Amino acid sequence: MCLYRNDDIASCFDRLDIDGNGVLTPDEIASILQERLGFDAEMARYTVDMFDVNKDGGLDKTEFIAVVD
């Protein structure tokens, strides 16, 4: 599972990117944020909004790295 120090962040992103479009939606990251960090769906959306630099509604790999690094 993702979000452990020894995980390769890029591989973690690829596993979470269920549809393979290169962007994680709040729905795609909600489960891991809930499971590992205790976030609810609203907090997952807030996290995406906060780190979504280009404001496209999701997190690309660079933005995702900023969240977990």
Topology:
Elements: H1 9-16, H2 26-37, H3 41-51, H4 61-68
Structure description:
The mean pLDDT is about 80. About 55% of the residues lie in helices and about 0% in strands. With about 70 residues, the protein is an all-alpha fold. α2 packs across α3. The protein has one domain: EF-hand (Recoverin, domain 1).
Low-confidence regions: none
The CATH superfamily turns out to be EF-hand
Give me the Rg, rounded: 11 Å
CATH-assigned fold name? Recoverin, domain 1
Molecular shape: globular
Overall average residue pLDDT: 82
Major sheet characteristics: none
CATH architecture: Orthogonal Bundle
How large is the share of residues in beta strands?
A: under 5%
**What number of structural domains do the residues give?**
1
Would you state the CATH class?
Mainly Alpha
Helix content: 55-70%
Separation, N- and C-terminal Cα atoms: 16 Å
Number of strands: 0
> So how many helices?
4
- Which H/E pattern describes the elements? HHHH
